[in-house]
């Protein structure tokens, strides 16, 4: 029986839902907004978090309120099918197409949480897998101009911590040599698949040569294979290449230019619960390692992402560090990797 089949027949009783806004100033000029979807039924509630990045989409979502009739489903599978057929942006088109997947996940994750709580069971029992200690990396940019200081501040708190770094054209050979000497770089994210964002990075083959050669054990995430010379240079390193921003489905994995060693399976970006569980099973059967990442959650979404990672891919370079590591000036002590989580006895949540 597939993982999805184990979950799909869970009974669910939805009597209604509401939306709870969250907001936090996370950097100068950036107000992060998310929306908690709260399903109610049978004296229980199930929670999910909409991690759409554009505040205007949250404003419209919250202003519209609970406009959908969700009480007809009798199983979790039926509920997710109902959600898949709804326009979850009824009053405005989302700023980004991927936001439809994010919002769908907020309803599906809330439904899984509610169904598990109504059944009196946790995720582990529902899928027949045990949670393991969660390995994580700290995702970090080194500033402009880049310096070793942000990394060294965190190593002073925990000398064993590992990092996922975003190389930029400003990384010179001296800085790269200093990074290599720390032994703390587990992954380098070239972010070549982003367009029109604040983290876009267009690096020539010279950047790849400087970084990949100096960090021979680091994973290489989202390289720009279409950049002249990059694909040829990286061919001997394909077993180190991982994919993140372009992974929304099994079809995306199968469309990659070669079978990957590892992919980032973000629940909110895959979207639906069925798609997520089928992707987990597909990767396991194909021998493709997985890791997960966060979406700047402000509420339960972070716990849910960590819990899913601990059950399905605990040993990858999961970009799911406890929030204290991501502070502008982190203060110790902070929890180390691997992180032992405490799954709640019921629901898709931590205790």
UniProtKB/TrEMBL annotation:
Which organism is this entry from?
freshwater metagenome
Checking InterPro entries in the record gives: Enolase-like_C_sf, Enolase-like_N
The name under which this protein is listed is: Unannotated protein
């Amino acid at each position: 029986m597939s993982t999805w089949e184990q979950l799909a027949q869970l009974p669910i009783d939805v009597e209604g839902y509401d939306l709870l806004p969250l907001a936090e100033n996370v950097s100068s000029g950036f107000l992060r907004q998310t929306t908690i979807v709260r399903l109610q039924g049978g004296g229980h509630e199930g929670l999910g978090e909409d991690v759409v990045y554009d505040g205007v989409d949250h404003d419209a979502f919250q202003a519209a309120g609970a406009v959908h009739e969700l009480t007809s489903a009798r199983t979790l599978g039926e509920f997710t099918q109902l959600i898949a057929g709804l326009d979850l942006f009824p009053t405005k088109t989302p700023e980004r197409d991927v936001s439809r997947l994010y919002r769908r996940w907020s309803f599906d994750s809330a439904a899984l949480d509610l169904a598990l709580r109504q059944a009196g069971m946790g995720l582990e029992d529902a899928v027949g897998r045990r949670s393991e200690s969660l390995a994580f990396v700290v995702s970090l940019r080194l500033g402009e101009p880049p310096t070793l200081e942000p990394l060294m501040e965190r190593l002073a708190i925990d000398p064993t911590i590992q990092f996922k770094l975003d190389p930029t054209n400003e990384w010179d050979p001296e800085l790269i040599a200093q990074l290599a000497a720390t032994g703390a770089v587990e992954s380098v994210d070239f972010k070549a698949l982003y367009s029109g964002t604040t983290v876009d990075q267009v690096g020539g083959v010279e950047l790849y040569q400087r970084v990949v050669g100096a960090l021979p054990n680091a994973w290489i995430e989202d390289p720009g294979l279409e950049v002249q010379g990059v694909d040829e240079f990286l061919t001997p390193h394909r077993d180190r290449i991982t994919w993140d921003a372009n992974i929304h489905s099994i079809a995306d994995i199968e469309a990659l230019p070669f079978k990957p060693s590892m992919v980032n399976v973000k629940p909110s970006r895959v979207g639906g619960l069925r798609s997520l569980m089928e992707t987990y099973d597909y990767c396991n059967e194909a021998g493709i390692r997985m890791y997960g990442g966060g979406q700047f959650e402000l509420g339960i979404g972070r716990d849910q992402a960590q819990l899913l990672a601990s059950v399905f891919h605990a040993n990858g370079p999961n970009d799911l560090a406890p929030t204290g590591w991501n502070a502008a000036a982190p203060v110790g002590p902070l929890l180390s990797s691997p992180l032992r989580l405490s799954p709640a006895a019921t629901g898709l949540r931590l205790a």
